[in-house]
Design brief:
The structure is a homodimer.
Chain A: H1 9-23, H2 30-37, H3 41-47, H4 51-64, H5 67-72, H6 80-97, H7 99-111, H8 114-139, H9 145-161, H10 163-166, H11 179-190
Chain A binds a DNA duplex through residues 4-7, 29-31, 39-43, 45-47, 50-51.
Chain lengths: 194, 194
DNA sequence: GTCTATAAAGGGATAGAC
DNA sequence: GTCTATCCCTTTATAGAC
């Protein structure tokens, strides 16, 4: 059994996801990726035809990691109110504890081309968003479920998205970074909606 | 009176803002900026010491364009509810009609260093955010005004931020891109908060 | 599967003429 | 204030040995 380092595609992708998430596609060089993996840049081309392909696969892996959460957020049988509460907490936790995922998503929405966005909408978020819209409809039948779903996402995602500057804004407290505190705030803001 | 083209710093900055906003700092080259302005790249260095400085000044100009809105959003004397309604509509209109400003802001929050973020928080948004927090406090005295302000911003900004993918999500309608429709939705969502 | 070496292109920036 | 010409560096990507 040889001890030669046999890097797999997945090894590379796992090391690469945080780099793309933190710095963005352009600021990450093939050399930098290679260094993080522990090989030379040229060797990357044995696994991927080019940088774009590497990026796309990293993206797919980062997103597939969370398919479970999205599928399972709606299985539990409970009142709409309890389900919404649970969903918000789950979202807060996800977004708060996996910044890589959130940042990749944000970068894609900003800079992704139409084809990739359509793919994301159809195959990554489609079902999740549909379930969410149904939940919103049962919570607030007089409101546009699409707009409501966006609002819920916005309340959660934007809060953590602007964490870097939130710290400097008047009234900041440490507890504002806590998933549970934020989730409770957002839920209390939505539950009175009629 | 000579007809020689005498490009001013401001001319350059105005042409540059949309480029940085759309593509981001790295994807915009000095040659590309020069072409947009109508001069050669070397000439840019007569006006700015380097690319960073050009970017910072473009940023400042893009943000100063909206200082007025932020200062004036709270002058009118009316009930808190009417003031909130007006603020939300103003924000929606601003974010919807000047995508450059929103995108630059978003990019800064993602990739800006601590020093620049502190500057933004102190000198661009500080007073605005403080006024907003007071308004939130008078609307919902039992809620954390900092969290409430972030929530209002998130409801507005996130909605337009994800416009590129919103189009592909179930339930999308053209009216969801209309400032007034969105503002009304957000206000109706907040006005019942106790 | 990984390496060294290198090609080819594009980037930021400077020098000096006009 | 703008130009041409050029330097120097980094980047992506390929070729071919091991």
């Amino acid at each position: 059994m040889s001890k030669t380092k046999q890097t797999t595609k997945t090894d590379i992708l796992k090391r690469t996801i945080p780099l793309f998430a933190q710095y963005g596609y352009d600021k990450v060089s093939m050399r930098q990726i290679a260094e993080a993996v522990g090989i030379k840049a040229a060797s990357l081309y044995h696994h991927f035809p080019d940088k774009q392909a590497l990026y796309i696969e990293a993206l797919s892996l980062a997103f597939s990691n969370h398919a479970d959460f999205m599928d399972e957020s709606f299985v539990l049988q409970a009142s709409p109110e309890r389900r919404l509460r649970q969903l918000i907490l789950g979202l807060c936790t996800l977004v708060n504890e996996d910044p890589d995922f959130s940042r990749l998503m944000q970068r894609e929405i900003m800079d992704g081309d139409e084809k990739r966005l359509q793919f994301l909408a159809d195959h990554v978020f489609g079902d999740f968003f549909r379930d969410m819209s149904e939940l919103c409809l049962s919570m607030a039948p007089d409101k546009d479920p699409h707009l409501m779903s966006i609002s819920v996402l916005g309340l959660v995602i934007y809060h953590f998205q602007i964490s870097p500057i939130r710290f400097f804004l008047p009234g900041f407290q440490d507890s504002h970074n806590d998933s549970q505190v934020v989730a409770e705030h957002i839920f209390s803001l939505l539950k009175n909606t009629h």
